[in-house]
Every structure is written in C-alpha cells, then in structure tokens.
Amino acid sequence: MKVRAGWEGRFFEDFEIDDVYQHPLGRTITDTDNTWFTLLTMNTNEAHFNAEVGKASEFGKPLVVSTLTIAIAIGQSVIDTTQNAFANLGLDKLRLSHPVYAGDTLWSESIVLAKRESASRPDAGIVTIKTRTINQHGDEVLSFVRTFYIHRRGAPRAGAGFPEPKEPLVVHDWERPA
C-alpha cells in the first residue's frame, strides 16, 4: 500500500505574477447562513434579517450581510493561495460592487499581483493577490487586494502535517467490493 499525499497548497516558490487561480468550490448562500452570520457578528441592521424591511428597501428583499460575502470569498481562495500562509498583512481596495441575496451562488478567482522575499524571515515570502467574486449570473459582487506571509517549501514551521497513526490503515477482505 502506498500513501499518496493530498493537496498541500502552494508555497512561496509556486506563485508567479499574473497567474490566475479559479477557486474550485462555489457556495450558495442560504437565509440561514445570513441570519446566523448577522447574529454571530452582532450586526443589528435589519436590512439583513427582516423580510419587511428588505421588501421596503430599494432592493426589494433582504441583503446578505457584506462581511459574510467577504468571509466566503477569502475562504474560497484559501485552497489555492493561503493554505500555507501564516499571517495576513493587509486587505486593501475592498469593493462591494453588486448586491448579494440568499440563494445566490458565489465563486471566486485570484490573480497574483506581486511577490517578494521576506527580509526578516528567510523561510517565507510575501505575496499580494487580487481576488474577485462573481455570482451565478457572472456579476462581480466583490473584489479586494490581499497581502500575506507564506512559507517556503520545506520551511520548519510549514504545516503541522499528518499525525503518525498508532496503527496502520488496514483493509479487511470483507470490506472490499465483491
């Protein structure tokens, strides 16, 4: 039996300026997501959770709280950009360009704007990306520029790694398909 490593994410060396990563997971936002996020973050603006207030607004229905949209966009980008990052350094030029509603499905993509060696951390570098998020109709709903510290491949602090199992993974004959 051969153990094959799963996706380990990108390291500093893997980033090239102008590379685009279309992040693989779309996310449909539900009313429950929106309500829970407003409660979690103590956002008391009823435009996000009161159907009557939303109906009376220029949008005609409740809006998804913008910080949830931001959180989803950043989360969608992690698999391709910051799986091996250890610190966000900045979030700049944030634009919320189109309303988001419960039922919308969001996808994000990022382009590498810059990268440089770290002067103080020889096992790391600094990368800057622009991320944008689009809905199911192709409308851009959000964009921002994010800068982060990221480990070099082989850096001693890069990832905790898979723990050593106390016993090997065993497959019994009765578990295999006939």
UniProtKB/TrEMBL annotation:
<dbReference type="Pfam" id="PF19315">
    <property type="entry name" value="MC_hydratase"/>
</dbReference>
<protein>
    <submittedName>
        <fullName>MaoC family dehydratase</fullName>
    </submittedName>
</protein>
<dbReference type="InterPro" id="IPR029069">
    <property type="entry name" value="HotDog_dom_sf"/>
</dbReference>
<dbReference type="InterPro" id="IPR052342">
    <property type="entry name" value="MCH/BMMD"/>
</dbReference>
<dbReference type="InterPro" id="IPR048274">
    <property type="entry name" value="MC_hydratase"/>
</dbReference>
<dbReference type="GO" id="GO:0016829">
    <property type="term" value="F:lyase activity"/>
</dbReference>
